[in-house]
Amino acid sequence: MGLFMDEELLRGKGLEPEGGEIAAFDGFALRIGQRAALVPTPGAKVYGLVFSLTRSELDRLYSESSVQVYKPQAVLAQLASGGVVTPLTQKVISNLRG
After folding, report:
1. I want to staple 91 with a disulfide (CB 3.0 to 4.6 A). Which of 58, 73, 76, 84 is the partner?
2. Domains, the chain, ranges and CATH?
């Protein structure tokens, strides 16, 4: 969940995402700016897609200069199928301008 919820975009970057299940994230709102970001917000809920990537793929994905201001953060996700997982999302570590 977060910046990269598009399977075709991930595959276009040479990654092999698995899954792609709809999930709900309690306690977050979606902020759209230069990039989409999850913002902790009590009482809010956002929906997105959860993909499975290897750690190596995640490191490669977030080594791009345009997303180096993000760091991984584990969040609880309630899957549409009924399960609960703790995927990594990316949190802004400095203010983005523009």
Report:
1. 73
2. 7-92 (3.10.490.10)
